[in-house]
Amino acid sequence: MSVHVLPHPPTSSLTSRPKLNIKNADKADTASTTSSPELSSYESSENGVEEIAEPIISAEKLKQIEKMEGNPDFLWMTTEEPHRSRRMAILKAHPEVRRLMGPTLTTPPIVLLVLTIQFTCAYLLRSHHPFSIPFILTAYIIGGTANQNTFLSIHEITHNLAFKSIKANKILAIISNLAIGIPYAMAFKGYHIEHHKFLGEDGIDTDLPSKLEAMILDNVAGKTFFATFQILFYALRPGFIRSQKPTVWHGINILAILAFDVVLVRAWGWNSLIYLVMSSFFAGSLHPCAAHFIAEHYLMNGPLPTKEESAMEGDDWLIKGLAQETTSYYGWLNVLCYNVGYHNEHHDFPSVPWTKLPELHRIAHEFYDPLPSHESWPYVTWKFITDPSIGMWSRAKRLNKGDKISHDIWTPLAEGKVPDEREAREVLKQDEEEEELAYMSDSDKPKSKKQ
Question: Which DSSP symbol is given to 46?
Fold first, then answer.
């Protein structure tokens, strides 16, 4: 796919539906692709006619341009991610959404049920060879599904949505981690919160493929390899892109899982541990539920329109571009996966638990119904592998948080209605407070609320 850069919007974040230009870098020179209102200066000529001077570009901006040109096939955005502005728009239209926020006690019993299933299978297969048909089929069908559920239980608990206490959530995440066989929960927490807060930011969001990955795997064989071993990419990539400082909880997580593995091997033998690890591999491989890894943020609807095409379509092309960054799926596999398919809803409101995401969609349906969505997760994997226009490059990236966009961009305005600027300012005042609630990370919890 071709690179499409979204230049900076007007400086006022209160402007409704800012008119931005998407330009094809293959058809435009560097100056036109990177120019913006802030980078252009205007001088008066002797005859009084204003002339456009050469763009004033800082050294930092030049470095950013060089980085974008060195990765030409990613979708480079200079606006912020779409979820903050849409969250504000939804809260303005539906303040009742706030009552959906907070933990649900439905999660802990499911964690214990899945652990019981996995431990039972591990015990029953203790005498079977790992390469036997019963062992492999059980690990793929039951184990892969169960451990994908486990990954997503940890994802849910990472947002502190099982208990009110942060400590209790961390303990439950480590307990859930027992089914995976490899320490995972505490390392995932830090990276995942960054994925939400810095969605698409190159060098911070480790969910993004690197340029090297995209270059090597840009073919059917490479994409098949990635889809088969994607669990390893997500496990190893963070260490190469952005290492994090270990905490005491990282140590507790490692010691707890290793101690459990030792006990398991001594009690039931190596095959039981191999079953848990094999289940984890299948959970992140060519498994129907594993397709959500690709479905969530890969640009599966093709490249954004060119400048000429967007001029024909009008202002709505901006919304179309932003809407592709996250894509939801509303099919039945959500039953097995903590409703992670409701991914636009989740990124808009990470403080809403999985049990209430369908209700969030129902309440704010006028915001979510127009967005593109997937009808089938397995088809997403098939399309990703076989469609030459989609691949590892099909991701939106940013060099920084990007320019803020108005929440009004997501709100269809009544014909002839003029946006109330005062009302807009009142909504934007709530931004910091709402983000503290939305990200639900340890440091973002209001200090007045002791955990």
Answer: T
φ, ψ dihedrals at 450, nearest 5°: -80, 140
Whether the Cβ atoms of residue 278 and residue 137 lie closer than 8 Å to each other: no
Count of alpha carbons within 13 angstroms of residue 391, beta-carbon side: 24
CB 29 within 8 A of CB 2: no
Strands 42-44 and 50-52: antiparallel
Tokens read off for 250: 């990282």
Taking the model in full, what pTM does it have?
0.81
- Stretch (H or E) spanning 76: strand 75-76
The tokens for 384 are 């990703």
Strand partners, 4: 24
Task: Pick from 58-72, 237-251, 301-315, 325-339 the range whose average pLDDT is largest.
Answer: 325-339
pLDDT in tens, 302-351: 555 554 555 555 555 556 667 789 999 999 999 999 999 999 999 999 99
Give the residue among 160, 64, 60, 94 at the shortest CA–CA distance from 407: 94
**Rounded CA gap, 102 and 116, in Å?**
27
Give the tokens for residue 348: 């808009």
Task: Report how far residue 431's alpha carbon sits from residue 425's, in angstroms, rounded to the nearest whole number.
Answer: 10
Tokens of 345: 């809803």
Q: How many Å separate Cα 27 from the centre of its chain?
A: 30
Q: Exposed (0-12), middle (13-18) or buried (19+): which is 186, by Cβ within 10 Å?
A: buried
CB 218 within 8 A of CB 394: no
Q: Where are the beta strands (DSSP E) in 346-397?
A: 373-374, 396-397
